[in-house]
Design goal:
Elements: H1 12-27, H2 36-48, E1 53-55, H3 58-62, E2 69-73, E3 96-102, E4 114-117, E5 120-123, H4 131-150, E6 155-161, H5 169-173, E7 183-189, E8 195-200, E9 202-211, H6 227-237, E10 241-244, E11 247-256, E12 266-275, H7 278-296, E13 304-313, E14 316-317, H8 323-334, E15 340-343, H9 349-355, E16 359-364, E17 376-378, H10 379-404
Parallel strand pairs: 3-6, 3-7, 7-16, 8-15
Antiparallel strand pairs: 1-2, 2-6, 4-5, 5-17, 8-14, 8-16, 9-12, 9-13, 10-11, 11-12
Helix pairs in contact: 1-4, 4-10, 6-7, 8-10
Amino acid sequence: MSAGPPGLPAGELERRYVSGTFAELCRLESPSRRERGCAERVIAELRALEVEVQEDDAGSRTGSDCGNLLARISADPAHARPGSAAPRGEAGPRGCVLLCAHLDTVPLQAPVEPVLVDGVWENANEGVLGADNKAALAVMLAVARRVRGQGASVDVELLFTVCEEMALAGARAFDASRLGADIGYVFDHASPIGEVVIASPSHFRIEATFRGAAAHAGIRPEEGRSAILAAARAIASMQLGRLDEETTVNVGTIEGGSAMNVVPERCTLVAEVRAIADERAEEVVSGVVDRLHAAANEPHCECDVDVEVQRTFGGYRLAPSRPAVRAAEQALRRCGHEPVRIKSGGASDANVLVAAGLETVNVANGTEKNHEPGERVSVAALEEMLEVALALLEEAAEAIGDGAR
């Protein structure tokens, strides 16, 4: 492969590699808990570069057929360091940068058949393409080839997680103490390249099960107590959608009843609350729980209700002055993109890594319509993402040297 040092633009072969590899990865369907095929392709690519890959036990902990993958590449191309990295802060004088992406996709609505239409990768069928997050996987593999062949300004760690689409389950099962990185980056925001996520929400899952009394709906309805009615009244009393710039509430599923002619004895709903500020999220969760209990006690409902609240993951804010943010913005400018700082209502593995103490920035990847049948990404966006990732290595090295440790 003809390529220059990490700071130089990607060559023609690298651009062709990232686009072709992206399409190959998309064909390896990997909905959450079925990531093995995609993981084996990633492992094969890295081992061909003589880079050791280690797999953890996240598979057994998340129900997946695969664990998280960790690899490390020395800045010196004469060495390929194993996946068991040195403890953070002991990465050597060059420092170390983590790049992270997830192997899984959301559930598939149709088989994945990548096709190139006017310079844009799409699924020929009415289903997701898998650009979330296989665009980042392809870029990371291209970065590995560059660093392994030509060296870099910093050591590079590569983390490939499972079950990210299941509330970041793979990253939450990962032992972050294995990392030696000083700062980290994920490429997991479906928006134009140039956007830098500096805030992401905390997430709470709320499951409520209403228990009433069954009765014949045509003969003895007055003897029944409808769990579905109680759940419906609870939902109707809630403020759903966007509450403010940083807070959202959603009821995602509701399930109950046994037959059309039976007053439903049982009904379960699952809701979520997201807010960037933990205290705001807790305040809204408390309000949702109050409305669930109030609805259960309303006349003609009079149901019991069991409510379970789980704080799935924490949110974060990164100051623009932080080294990882500065490096991301410098890399974007270097590649011709004006950085735009944003707050996201979505989460990524960055949430888990930040909570574990690793300063991590989520950088937009240029994909479009993630989680939708029309999901797509242009060849140009893939190439630009690679350019940004390569520039990041040099800018991150400077940021680490300026005091990221």
